[in-house]
Structures are given as structure tokens and as C-alpha cells.
């Protein structure tokens, strides 16, 4: 066994992404055990905090996705308890999990991100649905992309190719969040870039190119084996590879993130990378892009995860 002691992997929770979290947690636990680390997998429930206080682990590795996993809540509690954990600070998680806030910061840093507007559900009630729809239609050329302002795994997200599709896309979005982010859809190649920091500063892993059979990298495309093709490393020129890596590292540092993140980008026909969003707790399942990037870098998953744990304990 490793001399790290015991690591608790948090998986599950009560967000819409519970199933993905359980799959991520199982994979992380298996990888850590393969690297000689003693691991306990725990769900997030009323027994968690008493358990952590009664038998304090050396570190916690959260694999929680969506609300309570990426919004800074669990990170804040772990910080209060003084338990080292793999991941970003509560403040950085809150800033990044709110996509409009993250895009504000990214644009202020000089990076390209599609034009957008964030509209709460109540705005449609207060100002009139048709009037708001007309304003959006007048301001944004098609195609558009609609997604929850807070959330992940593409739940509630949809491409809008005609004006008639916009109302239904908003209804689907509001099932997952009270605010919709409507942005101009950039045409190009979908790229995911993982950034890791094991104590020597953030570095980008090889980019992963994503080609969904349906043309949209939605929830099914993310987590159903065989319906999405991944290229790891991505089919990029050296200049394109450097450009997407630079954006991912700059996004990671601009938002104050730690340990590990995944930046989603679109690379357009002019080889310009467009920032879409960052996951502070990226999926680590068998169909997720981060493990593919780790493999493309000729790294061992278990060793990388162990190094992340060692870094937060040392810090």
C-alpha cells in the first residue's frame, strides 16, 4: 500500500448528474487502488460529515458533478473541516460553475468566447415571452446554443437552428436551471483540453477531439459508449495544438482553479479557439475525455490521481 494513508472518494450526491458521478468515482477508486492507495468510496449524505470527523482521512477526492459538487458547497465544507481535497477552492468553483460569470472573466482576460445573453426564467414572465424571444432573435444570428447557466453533462442543452426551435429549447433548459445561457453557436471542431497541476504549475494534456454521431455532443453522446468518436490526441497542427493548450491553461489560471479542470472549446475554420466552458470536476468515466487525454500523454491514471492527492496533502 501507498504511504498516503486513506483517501475517501466522494461519489453520488443528489444532482441530476448522480449516475455520472458514481461512474466517475468507481473509476477513480479503482485507479487509486491500482496505484497502491487505500480508498473508501462514500456518498454525500447525512452520515458523511460525522464519518469524516470520527475517522479523518488523509485526503478526499470529490468526483461530484453538477450542483453541490461543482458549485463550491462541498469544497467549502471540506475546507471548514480542514480536510485536504483534490480540486479548486470554493470561491473558484462558484465563479466557474456559473457560466455567465466565467465567460465574463474569460472575455476580460482577452480570450475569445461566443457572444451570449443570460436570461432568468422570471424575465419571460415579467416582460412577456414573445417580447423577449423577439429581442433575442433580433440580436443573435442563427444558429444558437441554449444551455443552463449552471450545470454540466449537457443536460438541458440544445442547438437551435430555426427560430421555431427556440421556445422548446428554453423550456428544456429551464427544467435544469432558473437561468438560460443563450449564445451564438460557433461552427467548427469540438475540442476538450484537460489541465492538471500536481504541484509544479498547471499544464495542458493532449487535446481530445470529439465527433458525435448525432452532430451534437449531448448527454447521450457523452456517456453512451460507441456513439461518439474520440481522437486522442486531437487531429491538430502544432500551431492549433499550442493555441488550444494556451487557452485551457489561461482559463484555468484566470478562474483561479487548482488540481484539475477541463476546458471545452470550438476550433473554427480559421483555427481560432473559442472558449465555451470549464468543468471544475470533469467526468472521469470510461467514456470521458480526461482519461483519454491522460492516456495520450502516456501517463498512468492511478499515478496521476495519486500525485494530485499527494500535492494537496503537501500543500
Automatic annotation (TrEMBL):
Gene3D superfamilies noted in UniProt: 3.40.50.20, ATP-grasp fold, A domain (3.30.1490.20), ATP-grasp fold, B domain (3.30.470.20)
Q: Give its localization.
A: Cytoplasm
Q: Which UniProt keywords apply?
A: ATP-binding, Cell shape, Cell wall biogenesis/degradation, Cytoplasm, Ligase, Nucleotide-binding, Peptidoglycan synthesis
- The answer to whether the entry has keyword Transport is no
- The protein, known as: D-alanine--D-alanine ligase
Task: Please explain the role this protein plays, according to its UniProt record.
Answer: Cell wall formation.
Reaction(s) catalyzed by this protein? 2 D-alanine + ATP = D-alanyl-D-alanine + ADP + phosphate + H(+)
Task: Give the pathway.
Answer: Cell wall biogenesis; peptidoglycan biosynthesis
Q: Which family does it belong to?
A: Belongs to the D-alanine--D-alanine ligase family.
Give the species.
Answer: Catenulispora pinistramenti
E.C. code: 6.3.2.4
The top EC class is ligase
Q: Which residues form the ATP-grasp domain?
A: 103-310
Listed Pfam families: Dala_Dala_lig_C, Dala_Dala_lig_N
- What's a single GO MF annotation on this record? D-alanine-D-alanine ligase activity
PANTHER family, per database record = D-ALANINE--D-ALANINE LIGASE, D-ALANINE--D-ALANINE LIGASE B
Q: Which residues form a coiled coil?
A: none
